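Help! Submission page says 'invalid entity' but I think these are all valid:
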Amino acid sequence: MNTEEKEYQKLSKMGRSLGVIIPECFLEIEVKLPSGKVLSHYKQRSHSWVRNAYNVMISQLGAIDYSDATFGAGLISRKMPNASINHSTTQLSIEQPIDVEAGGGYCGVSGDPTYGISVGSSVQAESFEDYKLITPITNGVGAGQLSYNAGETPVKSYDVPSKTYSAAHARYMNNNSGGNVLVSEVALIGRGSGYSPFLTSRDHLAATVTIPSTGQLKVTYTISLVYPA
Amino acid sequence: MDYIESKSTERKFKELRELGQKLGIPIFESFIEFEVTMPNGEVVHHHKQRSHSWVRNAYNLMMSQLGGINGSDVTFGAGLISIKTTNGTIGHSISILFLEGWGGDVENSDSGYRGAAGIATKGIIVGSSAQVESFEDYNLITPITNGSGAGQLHYQEGVVPAKSYDIPSKTYSVAHVRYMNNNSAGNVLVNEIALVADLQSAVSRDHLGATITIPATGQLKVTYTISLVFPA
């Protein structure tokens, strides 16, 4: 186990002992060919909740509005993928009060990469201030495009020994372009209030993932919370 | 004012904060401050402590919001995402979980954690039970009701939350305050405190280390401060 993983585990243990809420997030990438051959498959921690996600958390648990007209340190608002600042005298949520496990929340609909799990090609390092994929891979069958399936219904599980509740969100993307498609960044985008998607996490992948023509990419985000009891 | 947390506890929280900041994991902290003042301005009690006691409802809210899942389990407990309201009923819906009404101003009177004047069932509320806190708490054990009879307090409207940001520590804080007046003829004893959201869902209950006595004509001020350490 590497040093960083030891630190994550220490943090998780300390959080449980001190009664502090510690959310964790993992990202799994798998590339397959139609033959079933797995070309790439790995899992890593997602390190990259962005400012929008923190603002959701403090707005929800602190019971405050996201009413600041600007965005940045010390301000509670949200930054949309087009860089506009959205604010309102109400709480910030990743979705309206609707079913977030079927077409809402992080479950993007087929052919729509603007919310849910979405990927891009930029190798730009991740930043806490990210609010969009740097170079989104659009939906389609043209060069450099992927066909986005609908997000899968999240798989929810609870591990009794570790008292950990997990929600795994998966999405398949097919390369019908005729050439390779290179993926270097991944994002989690909530559909948001007013159905205005906003990014909550962006990860720059340590190594570019190549999806060959006819290949399929599966991305799984697993969000976990360790309960004290 | 006395700050009653031990140095060893504070060291652990400091380490937790720094580790969370380094690893990009959000770290919530919560503090409660109690001040009892007499009409002549004399402060007869003043202490601050950590609130250690987010309850299951608070964890479920975070799991639903951050994990993008519904609060749809019809029962409540380990491995289930639902809420338990202060009357013990289980709230569930095929929807993302909210502890507040949808779309309203949560900083408004009688919204969020701001109980209205005379309302002792939501916002910051206090009780007399000395029963230790539990992660499964969903209400005070023995709530102190609103009124001027024996053992009662007059609950003022929760104050508009004070929001602040500390640049050096990158910490955003929200302070929720409520005043309660003892207009009864005798002492009122407080042993427990809870934070109850608008939809009658407690997110936190703390059993106090020592009873706080509010003498007749005294005023209790409670401040709940909820903080989140940002990485940048």
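Support: the input was valid. A stray whitespace character was the problem, and the output above is from the cleaned input. The radius of gyration of chain A is 18 Å.
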